[in-house]
Amino acid sequence: xxxxxxxxxxxxxxxxxxxxxxxxxxxxxxxxxxxxxxxxxxxxxxxxxxxxxxxxxxxxxxxxxxxxxxxxxxxxxxxxxxxxxxxxxxxxxxxxxxxxxxxxxxxxxxxxxxxxxxxxxxxxxxxxxxxxxxxxxxxxxxxxxxxxxxxxxxxxxxxxxxxxxxxxxxxxxxxxxxxxxxxxxxxxxxxxxxxxxxxxxxxxxxxxxxxxxxxxxxxxxxxxxxxxxxxxxxxxxxxxxxxxxxxxxxxxxxxxxxxxxxxxxxxxxxxxxxxxxxxxxxxxxxxxxxxxxxxxxxxxxxxxxxxxxxxxxxxxxxxxxxxxxxxxxxxxxxxxxxxxxxxxxxxxxxxxxxxxxxxxxxxxxxxxxxxxxxxxxxxxxxxxxxxxxxxxxxxxxxxxxxxxxxxxxxxxxxxxxxxxxxxxxxxxxxxxxxxxxxxxxxxxxxxxxxxxxxxxxxxxxxxxxxxxxxxx
Length: 472
Ligand SMILES: Cc1ncc(COP(=O)(O)O)c(C=O)c1O
Known about the structure:
This protein is α/β, with parallel strands linked by helices. 38% of the residues lie in helices and 14% in strands. It is built from 15 helices and 16 strands. The strands form four sheets. The protein has an eight-stranded mixed beta sheet. Strands 12-13-16-15 form a four-stranded antiparallel beta sheet, covered by helices on one side. Helix 2 (42-49) packs across helix 3. It binds pyridoxal-5'-phosphate (PLP).
């Protein structure tokens, strides 16, 4: 072939051989050097470009190693077929991940109060776990999570939620978002799932990603409408009975019983997501569905994301024995996704009583914040009414306005406030009037009043009700 004319820069910090390699590679990728083209000999190209033969040799060696060219004995170097290079020919650009916007008030519903985290106690347990020089912890542990942690979780669940289980039934994983896909993998017989509408978006996304079909089940003041299960051909169901996400309703006792009966008759499973049951502020404790189940039909799922911190990425599920056997068959060659040092720190945190203390403290903190919020909204009633305030870390605001929830969200955004609408969590169901989710947990208590006044001002809702100073 003719010579290759590239301008190499001897002053550059990139070595000459690498410059030459990059030029030739680009020419191949661009198709300027087509398949089967013979490259000039090393000696001739070296002379032509006024570089040493070793420079050319190194460049060709790199191209050879990466499969751009081949070397035929006594013939020379040839450009390889284009098909083999399709990966490198792509022109796709990589978009940077969007950066997180900061808000004056962020009312996103799943946030926790991070200011009260007992760093000192956590650090003490962490230090102890590392200081013991427990070499065993450097090796892989049980796929289900270490037994000591599972024992602590089983004891905690029995006392706090009436969950009956042996530590052997517990699977520890990196939160609900990692455990749910594993669970769906085990429920291969179920083709159509029932999910709450409105509901936790992750479940719907998961079904969509996995091409599993689902039926949205409406939710009313007594929780999800379980009679729809019988009407629709549903094989398994995902529910949040203790504190429906995001409406905050509690599944009534009669519906719980019907749900359990349905699962027993159909010999199918109920996935009970008990994600924030630690924080109840009024009424009797709500028993878990699992504690009422006599027929091994409930998979209990929970997380430390609300009770401790979302970044810990530790959640767990309790599998009924038939599913446990399936899990062990399928996952026996896998490893637990939670690092063992974190598992043991959490074990110590629970065993020492620090977890219980932290929960008690957070319950008080959240209760106080909730009371402040309810009091601060009082003057804006009845244009704004509150529901879902008996548990959890957010409440639902129903707003009497001619505007849509999307418009209300936009107005809040312009005022430096991030707020989610109920409509963001809906599938087929519709708002009767705009509803928004007010996450109160993360805001400092002293700022709650200002946040509420600013929100009301940007929605043009005044104090004093419709016959007072209110304007809309
Ligand atoms: C219904 C529900 N389940 C579970 C979680 C927690 O998920 P993870 O354990 O993956 O943090 C949340 C968090 O907001 C939730 O709203």
